């Protein structure tokens, strides 16, 4: 039996020596770590000059950003798991790595241990990627899966996720889609050889998804997932990136991704449809991704080379959400009287949104209200928004109960 | 809009120039290829000395092997899609590449466009892989999926696969598991950092799977897939590789892989359970994988480096099939009289195979025969073989209708 260090050495072609560990609380006992290697002075560590690789798993913007650029300046390559920083400042960090002739690897930043960055950057480097659509946040997938399988409401499912440790005390970053949006920015940039920043990503959380939405989804043979979707426009001249809950058919491979698992569906010209599936978070999966990058960076170091840097040559602009074209499922509360459907249909037509199906049903409690469920053909988000605004102004429309995009068909 | 050649140049950092194309029939018109570049003399082409990369998509052992080694000797790196050759002579080819200081890449050899070789070699280089289990042959998955979904028999499903172009006129390589076995050898070698040759892989085809087997599988909440399974032994000291039809639970991610798609499930210490899914064959998917490798090899060439070579340092021996431990589903035709179950149970016990469930039922047509379905706990293949041999010698056992392994639980 070999030890893990021996395995790393054999795979790299040279032993890896731990030079130091910067932590906030040095008093916390760390099994297997020589206490003499532990320091609170991260800056001094990355400035030492004899460090080959710095692994950054702090998270957040600062001090991570300054430590990473300082590491480059002092001759180290960097392996990072920092999605927020990469999504916000990926271009600058890649530039700093390039100037220093060092590597910047970050497989762990997106979808944990699932090999995704490397397949997109390298395996598909000879192909043209048209869409990346994935479940990249385990917390929200756990909540939605729970709502789907048990009929629980959002709050109840969130409480269970919190109790089981899948959701943090403040779940905002997950449930409002910030975490997924950072990953979408990183994936879109790599997939389309362009620069996509966090601010370019349209973001809608999943806190307003209801059990009624799941019932509607089931009526359509669908379920609901929080999706990160990065698309090349039909004319190829721009891209979009967005995060929002969406209905997807139960037959779609992403529909069967349960619990806290992640999965990313990639569509390209030549390869066709690919999917990458696995645990999206957690200490051990993150360690797997970080160590994979560490081996790659060390191999590059021994070869006197660096791996692929940023590839943003295509420089495609990011279009606003209004340009996104997809289908919509709209639930309206309307007056239960003749002529309402005609009024509603007219509003859709006036905005150029073609209706696929309409389902109209009286409320069991009567009361003069009915519900109207409209599923559209593909239309731009701008057209749909205009339609909904106009619907709200109709006297006969009492309320727009929900609007959900329909993807993956 | 950029052309594809421009994209490749931007991603590599230098233009790629097509130096020549060796073909058997030069008269066949090839759109977009300068006829002056076409030759029938492949040997002269790889010997030119000014070639940076040779792409080998001939298949088979010779002349591919000689052309590849000749290419290395004359200063070229090689991208290959040749699973048979890699499974048989991978070690020698890697050695030849290493001696010449050149690259040997072959992502297209296993599971078409699905990034698999690179994730295993690189992304998981810091992890310990314990099992690789996959559907790596699209033809047989198409046939089994058809049998499962329509109730068709093997021959009927094969005929449809042939008519649709999923099966070749002579389907032996697919249906007898030779193709999958070659891929299993390649995957096992990479996953376990050891040498696994085609001859080391236990192989059983799927021509004897019947609709009765699918009915049995459904009774257990399972379906049947032809699986390639590469495992590290529980004590870590050896590995096994095998290809055979097996029952897997409908809840397993591999169970929902339909049609001619491929998918490979990977289990490792830190990353946990990963799955890679996509089209396993076809011209365009193969081209995607080949071009991805081409970009990587060209980047290495520009950096004056080579990518990771063979990693076989662990040198784990390959154990025979008898050492494989799994569960079994056995259907017996037995005499319909008291005491038979006791006899059968005794035989299992004598061979150390523990029974999980037994289902006994009289035949609707009477006639003194009954069927007995036994599902075992985990046992070695050798113990199970001994059990079956002894069962065949019982007067009361009229026949062993089927033996199927149960995986993925």
TrEMBL record, chains A, B:
Residues annotated as binding NADPH: 83
Catalytic reaction annotation: L-homoserine + NADP(+) = L-aspartate 4-semialdehyde + NADPH + H(+); L-homoserine + NAD(+) = L-aspartate 4-semialdehyde + NADH + H(+)
Pathway field: Amino-acid biosynthesis; L-threonine biosynthesis; L-threonine from L-aspartate: step 3/5; Amino-acid biosynthesis; L-methionine biosynthesis via de novo pathway; L-homoserine from L-aspartate: step 3/3
Gene Ontology MF term list: homoserine dehydrogenase activity; NADP binding
Superkingdom classification of source: Bacteria
PROSITE patterns in UniProt: ACT, HOMOSER_DHGENASE
GO biological process: methionine biosynthetic process; threonine biosynthetic process
Cofactor: a metal cation
Keyword terms of this UniProt record: Amino-acid biosynthesis, Methionine biosynthesis, NADP, Oxidoreductase, Sodium, Threonine biosynthesis
Record-annotated active site: 183 (proton donor)
Segments forming domain ACT: 329-405
This enzyme's EC code(s): 1.1.1.3
Keyword NADP: yes
Residues annotated as binding L-homoserine: 168
Function: Catalyzes the conversion of L-aspartate-beta-semialdehyde (L-Asa) to L-homoserine (L-Hse), the third step in the biosynthesis of threonine and methionine from aspartate.
Protein family according to the UniProt entry: Belongs to the homoserine dehydrogenase family.
Name recorded for this polypeptide: Homoserine dehydrogenase
Species this protein is from: Streptomyces stelliscabiei
